[in-house]
């Protein structure tokens, strides 16, 4: 009745149901004593469910298309690589979108050696090469690389995706939070906080033909000794969309974003909260999309603020993307305290400051 094509279709459906039915959940430590043992014992479609606790190991996904999940979330499920001399999690065997890492804290990584000069490491917390896994609701914190990518190094045509992840307190020469090279990572609803680069890209360094996409992210308190306190883009493309920048700093240029050599990265619909959250380089940047600008508070006092905050403080907003003119020493002193020009620093000045920095 169905004919040959019908029988083939039924066979495909049955095979799919059988595959789903055979998927299993491997409990750690109930069924496997370590996370790596569970990964090694897994097959496509399986779930590795990790009990709360501190797991002192580094792990390799070995190309497995599985869900690796902290049973009670990242705050209670910690993979700690302190003293183990490697990246905490490695995805270097063509892992695809079916490889999902969810609800883990990834910490204590010192990066992988052997991809650069002796003694130099990449990817303190995460190393992704030629792979495209998904990380969901993970915390990447307290990882360090002697070279690039303190929190994560994403290279070799990787298309890794981070959903709702937090990068906090990671450190490297470039890309304190993340460095991507020749790759296309995506960051959705991610937070980068207090990451540090000894050279450039405190939160993210995009280099060498990368195309990162950041959407609805938050950049808070990241810093770089040279360029790009939060984001540094060099010879790369991509976009930073609907992202907020707060108290990021660079020793030279671009506390928020530095658009460097041969970059075509763009920033659209972003919010820049503090005076140190400036954008440098890249004449292609659409300044109309930068939702902060100069705020003239009178008496020669000018600060960078959002329009709403400026007007609440009684200032005159100069327009999105505008900057304050050079100031005298006296005006700079006034900026540092006496906002309302009454000759004293008091609660009124503090209220104005709070409005501008909220």
Structure description:
The protein is of the alpha/beta class. The chain folds into two domains: 23-292, Pectate Lyase C-like (3 Solenoid), CATH 2.160.20; 293-358, no CATH class. Helix content is 14%, strand content 34%. The strands form six sheets. The protein has a ten-stranded parallel sheet. It has a nine-stranded parallel sheet with strand order 3-6-9-14-17-21-25-29-33, with no helix packed on it. The longest helix is centred in the N-terminal third of the chain and has 20 residues, at 3-22.
Which terms summarize this structure?
single chain, 358 residues, alpha/beta, Pectate Lyase C-like, 2 domains, nine-stranded parallel sheet, 5 helices, elongated, disordered N terminus
Q: What is the CATH homology-level superfamily of the largest domain?
A: Single-stranded right-handed beta-helix, Pectin lyase-like
Q: How many domains is the backbone divided into?
A: 2
Helix content: 10-25%
Number of strands: 37
Q: Which overall shape is indicated by the principal axes computed on the Cα atoms?
A: elongated
Outline of this structure?
Helices cover 14% and strands 34% of the residues. The protein has 358 residues and is α/β, with parallel strands linked by helices.
How is this fold's topology laid out?
Blueprint lengths: L2 H20 L2 E4 L6 H6 L6 E4 L2 E3 L3 E2 L6 E4 L6 E4 L8 E3 L8 E3 L2 E3 L4 E2 L7 E2 L3 E4 L4 E3 L2 E3 L10 E4 L5 E3 L2 E3 L2 E4 L3 E4 L4 E3 L2 E3 L2 E5 L3 E4 L5 E3 L2 E3 L2 E2 L6 E4 L4 E3 L2 E3 L2 E2 L6 E3 L6 E3 L2 E2 L6 E2 L12 E6 L2 E5 L1 H6 L3 E5 L8 H7 L11 H11 L1
Parallel strand pairs: 1-2, 2-5, 3-6, 4-7, 5-8, 6-9, 7-12, 8-13, 9-14, 12-15, 13-16, 14-17, 15-19, 16-20, 17-21, 18-22, 19-23, 20-24, 21-25, 22-26, 23-27, 24-28, 25-29, 26-30, 27-31, 28-32, 29-33, 31-34
Antiparallel strand pairs: 10-11, 35-36, 35-37
């Amino acid at each position: 009745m169905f004919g040959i094509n019908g029988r083939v279709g039924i066979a495909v459906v049955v095979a799919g149901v059988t595959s789903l039915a055979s998927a299993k959940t491997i409990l750690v430590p109930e069924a496997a004593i370590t996370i790596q043992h569970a990964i090694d014992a897994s097959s496509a479609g399986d779930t590795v469910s990790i009990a709360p606790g501190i797991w002192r190991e580094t792990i390799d996904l070995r190309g497995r298309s599985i869900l690796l999940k902290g049973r009670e979330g990242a705050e209670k499920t910690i993979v700690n690589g302190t003293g183990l001399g490697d990246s905490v999690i490695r995805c270097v065997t063509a892992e695809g979108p079916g490889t999902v890492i969810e609800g883990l804290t990834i910490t204590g990584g010192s990066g992988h050696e052997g991809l650069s000069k002796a003694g130099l490491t990449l990817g303190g917390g995460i190393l992704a090469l030629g792979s495209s896994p998904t990380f969901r609701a993970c915390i990447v914190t307290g990882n360090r690389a002697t070279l690039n990518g303190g929190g994560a190094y994403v290279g070799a045509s990787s298309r890794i995706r981070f959903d709702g992840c937090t990068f906090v307190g990671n450190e490297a020469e470039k890309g304190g939070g993340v460095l991507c090279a020749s790759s296309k990572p995506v960051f959705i609803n991610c937070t980068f906080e207090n990451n540090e680069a000894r050279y450039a890209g405190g939160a993210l360094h995009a280099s060498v033909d990368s195309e990162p996409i950041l959407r609805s992210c938050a950049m808070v308190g990241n810093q770089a000794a040279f360029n790009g306190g939060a984001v540094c883009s060099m010879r790369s493309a991509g976009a930073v969309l609907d992202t907020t920048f707060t108290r990021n700093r660079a020793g030279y240029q671009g506390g928020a974003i530095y658009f460097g050599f041969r970059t075509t990265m763009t920033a659209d619909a972003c919010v820049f909260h503090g005076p140190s959250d400036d954008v440098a380089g890249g004449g292609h940047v659409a300044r109309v999309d930068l939702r902060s600008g100069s705020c003239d508070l009178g008496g020669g006092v000018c600060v960078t603020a959002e329009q709403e905050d400026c007007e609440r403080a009684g200032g005159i907003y100069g327009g999105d993307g505008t900057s304050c003119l050079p100031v005298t020493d006296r005006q700079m002193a006034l900026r540092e305290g006496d906002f309302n020009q009454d000759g004293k620093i008091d609660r009124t000045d503090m209220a104005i400051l709070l409005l501008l920095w909220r």
